[in-house]
Inverse folding.
């Protein structure tokens, strides 16, 4: 191989990867080379005979990671967004190597001792906090272990990496393996002709592939009770052995056991404690207190909502009671009665309008930034779009790319990816990517969104803003490199602007006529903000508590039956509530068993406590806070700070106090 575009710094603006030139065969050689170069740089730092300084230690460590981060971010973008069999195989090979590589740093006592010996008393706040975080990370990674225990830790991490990658691979396959298939279109009564045609396969049958979570969106439209229930049953039982190649049960048990063993090596009672100790929560008891207190309120509200749905079902000639698979169907009818019917609002929610006249409009008003299309800068698929982001004075901030559409192999859900992190010492500006899974329209057609899709666009763009507005000295402090239970704060907060009357009027226009969404629909949307929160909160807290339950186990407490453990755990927490299944079951819970949010799914709700409080701060201001003055205060005191200081300090810099947990219940309409 004479040329490897991953190993050559891109000459495109902002060092945008040469997506079109990068092939699967480039990835492994590039990863191996940048790992070797970074290890050589670490060795140079570790053996430096000079006393440690910020320049020869902190900055040297940061510089050592620049090329590594750039190559790995590109590779993992392609793994997640394209997900071909070839890329999946490469990802599986890289996982254990990456774990071993990371341990080579985190278990290097020489580097740890250099950082310990640093005198940063006169350094800037970000550098002082960098040292504090790094020492804490070393300790939580096992730097003080004996050599034998450190070797075992390395082996566990390598094995976990491979198991997590295999879990994601199988869970992704399960969405297809467990698809609902019928030859009878009458079983799909309620779907319009276009949607029905989209489900028809070459053999004449109708196939509904599953989305990433338990209840499937299409259940809200299908009038046949048994079909709704069969679709949910297919979703809830995936990964439980019907299809051997997507059975994840054994992986769940192995991962849980290895994480428990790892926690014990590090001197913790459980993996949940390991995770909480490095996050804002600090302790797993605080996590459980939040989740259970909110869950009990939500379950009580589910019981009240059930009575309203029963009234609807009694008027439905097709109904034969209400089971779990029916809940979202009748909830959608109830929402429609309140004026929010997806079929009526979708014509006003065209994707390009939502992006250009919604998220971009709000960001310009609040933060003074603008977005210029750059069609000359391509992505890895033709449907991707690119914008150059500029500040009010014309200064360039970075690039924003978007990959909105579903494709075979692409991971489920939606996410933000920092392709290149912006930071001062490297002189780089951010390249930020948002990924979604909206159905791609046919040529010449437009993409119309559901309201949930609109919230997803605003949510993921909140993450993007966190990356684009970063102003930190170090790359490791930039943007979303913050505690996991804080990272969802900017994204959830950005959702509030989807509802703001001025923003909504700017993007919610009929895709054919250009007419503004009628006032009665706008009012209904505004009133619907807390609609269905009993259901949504229950399914979330059930999943989050299942996550905690697995990771509170000791190494000798791992069960043999995944389904039985889930059931007993939820009963123990007092929220079995069979009408509302968890948003994810253990067999397709990629957040936790795929890595990234293990023992950390709670973080969405922890961050929402902060969100609810800051929303109240905005509402106390002129025009509901939709002003440059309010936006710039948030930008300067929080969004731009990344992890350059403790996130709670950024929050208190705005609010003047710590957050009020009650604000969460008020936001969700669950306060008594």
């Amino acid at each position: 191989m004479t040329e490897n575009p991953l190993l050559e710094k891109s000459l495109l603006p902002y060092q945008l990867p040469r997506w079109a030139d990068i092939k699967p065969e480039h990835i492994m050689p590039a990863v191996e080379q940048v790992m070797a170069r970074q290890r050589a740089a670490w060795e140079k730092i570790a053996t430096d005979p000079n006393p440690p300084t910020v320049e020869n230690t902190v900055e040297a460590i940061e510089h050592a990671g620049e090329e590594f981060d750039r190559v790995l971010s590109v590779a993992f973008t392609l793994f997640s967004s394209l997900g071909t069999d070839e890329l999946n195989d490469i990802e599986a090979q890289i996982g254990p190597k990456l774990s071993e590589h990371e341990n080579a740093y985190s278990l290097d006592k020489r580097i740890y001792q250099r950082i310990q010996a640093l005198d940063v008393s006169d350094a800037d706040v970000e550098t002082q906090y960098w040292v504090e975080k790094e020492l804490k990370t070393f300790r939580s990674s096992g730097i003080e272990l004996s050599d034998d225990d450190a070797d075992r830790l390395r082996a566990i991490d390598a094995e976990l990496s491979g198991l997590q990658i295999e879990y994601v691979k199988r869970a992704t396959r399960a969405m297809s393996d467990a698809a609902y298939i019928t030859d009878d279109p009458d079983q799909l009564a309620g779907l319009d002709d276009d949607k029905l045609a989209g489900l028809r396969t070459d053999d004449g049958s109708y196939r509904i592939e599953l989305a990433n979570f338990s209840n499937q969106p299409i259940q809200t439209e299908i009038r046949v009770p048994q079909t709704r229930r069969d679709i949910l049953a297919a979703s809830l039982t995936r990964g439980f052995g019907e299809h051997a190649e997507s059975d994840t049960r054994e992986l769940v048990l192995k991962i849980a056991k290895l994480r428990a063993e790892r926690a014990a090596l590090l001197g913790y009672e459980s993996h949940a404690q390991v995770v909480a100790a490095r996050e804002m929560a600090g302790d797993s008891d605080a996590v459980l207190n939040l989740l259970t207190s909110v869950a009990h309120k939500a379950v009580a509200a589910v019981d009240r909502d059930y009575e309203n749905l029963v009234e609807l079902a009694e008027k439905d000639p097709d109904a034969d009671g209400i089971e779990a698979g029916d809940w979202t169907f009748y909830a959608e009818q109830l929402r429609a009665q309140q004026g929010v019917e997806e079929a009526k609002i979708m014509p006003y929610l065209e994707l390009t309008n939502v992006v250009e006249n919604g998220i971009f409009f709000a960001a310009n008003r609040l933060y003074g930034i603008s977005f210029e299309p750059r069609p000359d800068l391509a992505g890895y698929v033709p449907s991707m779009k690119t914008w150059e982001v500029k500040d009010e004075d014309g200064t360039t901030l970075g690039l924003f790319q978007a990959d909105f559409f579903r494709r075979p192999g692409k991971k489920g859900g939606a996410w933000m990816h920092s392709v290149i992190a912006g930071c001062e010492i490297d002189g780089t500006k951010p390249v930020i990517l948002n990924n979604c899974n909206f159905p791609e329209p046919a040529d010449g057609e437009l993409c119309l969104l559901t309201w949930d899709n609109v919230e997803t666009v605003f949510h993921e763009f909140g993450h993007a803003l966190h990356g684009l507005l970063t102003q930190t000295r170090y790359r490791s402090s930039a943007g979303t490199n913050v505690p996991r239970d804080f990272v969802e704060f900017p994204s959830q907060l950005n959702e509030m602007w989807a509802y703001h009357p001025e923003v909504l009027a700017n993007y919610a226009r009929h895709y054919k006529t250009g007419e503004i969404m009628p006032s009665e629909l706008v009012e209904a949307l505004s009133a619907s903000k807390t609609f269905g929160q009993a259901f949504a909160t229950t399914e979330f807290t059930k999943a989050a508590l299942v996550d905690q339950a697995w990771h509170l186990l000791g190494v000798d407490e791992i069960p043999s039956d995944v389904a039985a453990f889930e059931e007993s755990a939820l009963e123990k927490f007092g929220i079995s509530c069979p009408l509302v299944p968890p948003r994810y079951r253990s067999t397709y819970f990629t957040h936790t068993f795929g890595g990234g949010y293990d023992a950390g799914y709670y973080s969405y709700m922890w961050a929402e406590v902060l969100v609810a409080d800051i929303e109240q701060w905005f509402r106390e201001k002129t025009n509901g806070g939709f002003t440059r003055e309010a936006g710039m205060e948030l930008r300067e005191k929080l969004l731009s700070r990344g992890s350059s200081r403790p996130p709670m300090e950024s929050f208190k810099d705005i609010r003047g106090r710590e957050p009020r947990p009650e604000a969460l219940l008020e936001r969700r309409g669950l306060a008594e």
Observations:
- DSSP finds 27 helices and seven strands in the chain.
- The radius of gyration is 25 Å.
- Residues 403 and 435 are 5 Å apart (CA to CA).
- The mean pLDDT is 95.
